Amino acid sequence: MLSTNQLHINGRRHTLLPATTVEAHKGEVLLIQADGQERRTALSLALTGRMKPSSGTVALGRDASMAALRRRSTVVDAPEVNAPEHHLTVRSLASEDLALVPFKFRDRTRPTEWLVTRGFRDLLGKWVEEVEPARLLHLQLELALADHGVELVVVDSPDRHSADTGTWLPLLERAAAGRMGLGPEANAQTPPRPLLVVGVVGRLPDGWAGPAAVAGNAAHTAAHAAEKPDGPQRPAPGGDLVEASVAEKAAIAVVPAEADGTAGEAGPVEAGGAAGESGTVSGVDAAESMAAEAGEPPAAPSGAEAETAESATPAADTPEAGTTAQPGPADVELSDAEHQGIQKEKQ
Questions:
Q1: Most buried among 4, 10, 15, 299, by the most CB within 10 A?
Q2: Contact 215, 255 (CB under 8 A)
């Protein structure tokens, strides 16, 4: 498995490759989209250990050694690096590439024989510029896989030659499946040679369902994470929450006052004093006031609230205020002596 973690390369004047994190597995084709030829070539070289990253890591399997990565990988068709020059013949191209194969894997045959035995007889005597892009890429892949120690193949910008993905994508899939670089003696019984294949492209093909990544994906992820605030976020109240009734709000408002002992400090309310003079307002009064504002009928008082409401009756309803209370059906009749006593007090 090929893996990179925050792979980043600084250029002389700008960032050549933003932080990139990818994984590639044997037998699969990984396509990485990168903008600009400089960025694509820098990524291709970094993935094969041929360019030292400014930060981050790249490893093939469990070996993070750059020297081991270079020995076990190859970069194909990188512009201004190892892309075939148009003034070369196909025979000269094969001769140069085969000379770079390590000695223990080098084929002793001559370049012409090598081309014939690998199925490139039709290219003998042609210039590189005369070869079709798909045929030329096939030749470059076979030359790269002449080194049997190669496990990773990175193809730089295969889509720059043609907008038709059929000229390069099937070749990458065939190489990943292990059907290339098997030698002239290969047949149906020859075991495949699965490879790690990475294509660094300018645009991902339409309908591509295989592994894919974008250069700079780790930098975008870090920037997105920095925008998120730390700590858990409380959800905003939704419209399905039930609002407390007016009576419940009044009861809630009274509870803190009773807990602080405010009613106790104000003392008992005198019969002739107004409720506002005592410094406290009973729960019944608060409920009636809030109910009136909300247009709801006031809640009936109960228990201690009823007693408090009776003791806080306004003075206007008492005899001292100059008015006589009208006896109701539940009132007790006064005796003649009591009436005389009341008249004397008034005089």
A1: 4
A2: no
